[in-house]
Amino acid sequence: MNPSATITLDESQIRRAPLRGVPSPAPECFGASFASPYSALIDAKLAGDRQIERLTARVQELAALLAATEERARQALAQDLHDETGAALTVANFALARAEHWLPADAPAALADALHQARSALADVCETSHRIVEGLQKPGFDANFAAPLADWIANFGTRTAISVDFSCPADARLDRMSHDMSLALLRVMQEALGNVARHAQAARARVSVSLDGQGVMLLVEDDGIGISAAARRKSGRFGLSGMRARCEALGGSLRVAAAKPAGTCVRARLPWAAARPGLFTLSVVNA
User: Fold this and answer.
1) pLDDT in tens, 171-208
2) Do 191 and 239 form a contact (C-beta atoms < 8 A)?
3) What is the CATH number of domain 141-279?
4) Which residues 6+ apart lie within 8 Å of 111 measured at CB?
5) Which residues pair with 268 in a beta bridge?
6) Residue of 74, 77, 99 whose CA lies nearest to 86
7) Are 217 and 187 in contact (CB under 8 A)?
8) Range 17-26 contact pairs with CB under 8 angstroms and sequence separation of 24 or more
9) How far apart are CA 154 and CA 144, in angstroms?
10) How do the domains of the chain map onto residue ranges?
11) Lower CB count within 10 Å: N or C terminus of the chain?
């Protein structure tokens, strides 16, 4: 062949001629090579989302079980205190009354004083037992969410000398909440204020209830010494595990943080999904 000769091929020959030693790729390979990694990522994302949903549902189930177990323990303790402890205290009170009645006129003054002190101490124990039983028992909300909270706060202030400001809007949605939702908010408030009395060294506290389109929020703040971040992370302390379980059982959340300028802030939030079906829809229509 003449080296200077020119070789000409038409366009159809170029398109049909394969490169020697290089196989022609299948047409579908171009799309597959790019689509398969993205498909795998999408499948993994969907599988991860389903797993998260299953785990979230399981956590909610366990939280509901813990809250129900705690409530049953409260009722059992209240029953025992009322029946057994109450009966024993009554017998002791009558025995001391008889001893005081039959005390000889010439008995030492110290003996009469000791009996009087014993009866006074026993009366305090009876009052404390009665108060504990009332706190443990399930309250009846009777279509009035705010009233049981206000009554408990008033008794708390009398016992502890801690001034508590209470604010709750007159919103019909609160009175149509499910009993479980109302009870969870009450128990969180009781535990949070109990912590204020036991640990906070506070002079004042504030309890407020607020609502929005997503749900209801309970806020308990105090002006005490607060708790450290490390203490807040220890779920077994300050009743945090029980409060958190009650909120999570209803699809809600609990947050404990430092208040400003001092003290502790406990914030419980429950969604309207925890209320009776149709509650929020009905409230929006009637608003």
Assistant:
1) 999 988 888 889 899 999 999 999 999 888 999 999 99
2) yes
3) 3.30.565.10
4) 103
5) 218, 254
6) 77
7) no
8) none
9) 16
10) 29-137, 141-279
11) N
